[in-house]
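Researcher: Quick test of sequence recovery. Tokens follow.
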């Protein structure tokens, strides 16, 4: 059994951060969650909440006291800009006795991840998840209101990952030996089309859901009407229209690191069925 350790989780209110917190608690570790506004944060019982901002590392010395592991994100501040404070954060972490660091990959090169990879004073692990299963929640409104999903490129493939499995891989890397200097591409156990996902959600909620395929021009109009910035739209066109091989290939990392199979989209859909029924 792994000895109880104290871990500092940054980005703790995010989709992945919450899962890292939950998994560490389930494994019997002490969790310290960093947030910029403790009054607005809500965490499970037993989590120590501390205020701090990764853009101002000098204020994090207290948060790092007694911590053996540190989970980092690559952006910070109100504008969610790429963090430039990586070297100082790592210096403070080493001084506090932190032994292991995980960093959530931000989709491309970032100054903080570069600093982590260059640091030989801690055992670092880069977490590189593909598409989150939680992204399917973007379909909730259309399913509840009209019983339909409207998407372009419906034959695109995705090895999408349960966000809880990202948290599980992070928790192991933060508390156990053997993961230093590794980067893990984290995927689910299967490759799915948009149609596969819609059918799976329909089964979970017990109702028919129509899949309406949009042309590229219709998708552009819809995204712009939703107020998406042009750089985000360009990213979506590339990611959906020309999904890279890494995003549509099962990696097996979850089972390799945690010792159990990755969770399926059917499991995720069952967990979130009420959301697609409009109940929560």
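Model:
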């Amino acid at each position: 059994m792994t000895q109880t350790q104290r871990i500092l989780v940054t980005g703790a209110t995010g989709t992945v951060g919450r899962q890292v917190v939950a998994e560490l608690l389930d494994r019997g570790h002490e969790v310290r969650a960093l947030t910029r506004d403790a009054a607005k944060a809500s965490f499970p019982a037993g989590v120590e909440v501390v205020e701090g901002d990764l853009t101002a590392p000098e204020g994090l010395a207290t948060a790092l006291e007694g911590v053996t592991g540190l989970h980092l994100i690559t952006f910070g501040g109100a504008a969610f800009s790429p963090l430039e404070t990586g070297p100082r954060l790592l210096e403070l972490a080493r001084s506090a006795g932190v032994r292991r660091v995980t960093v959530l990959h931000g989709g491309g090169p970032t100054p903080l991840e570069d600093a982590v990879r260059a640091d030989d004073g801690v055992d670092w692990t880069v977490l590189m998840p593909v598409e989150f299963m939680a992204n399917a929640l973007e379909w909730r409104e259309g399913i509840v209101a009209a019983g339909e999903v409207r998407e372009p490129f419906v034959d695109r493939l995705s090895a999408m990952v349960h966000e809880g499995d990202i948290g599980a891989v992070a928790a192991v890397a933060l508390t156990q030996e053997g993961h230093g200097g590794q980067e893990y591409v984290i995927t689910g156990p299967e490759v799915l089309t948009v149609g596969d996902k819609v059918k799976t959600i329909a089964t979970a909620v017990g109702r028919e859901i129509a899949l309406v395929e949009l042309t590229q021009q219709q998708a552009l109009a819809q995204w712009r009407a939703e107020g998406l910035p042009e750089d985000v739209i360009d990213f979506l066109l590339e990611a959906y229209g020309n999904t890279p091989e890494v995003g549509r290939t099962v990696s097996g990392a979850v089972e390799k690191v945690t010792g159990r199979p990755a969770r399926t989209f059917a499991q995720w859909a069952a967990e979130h069925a009420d959301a697609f029924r409009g109940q929560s």
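The mean pLDDT is 95.
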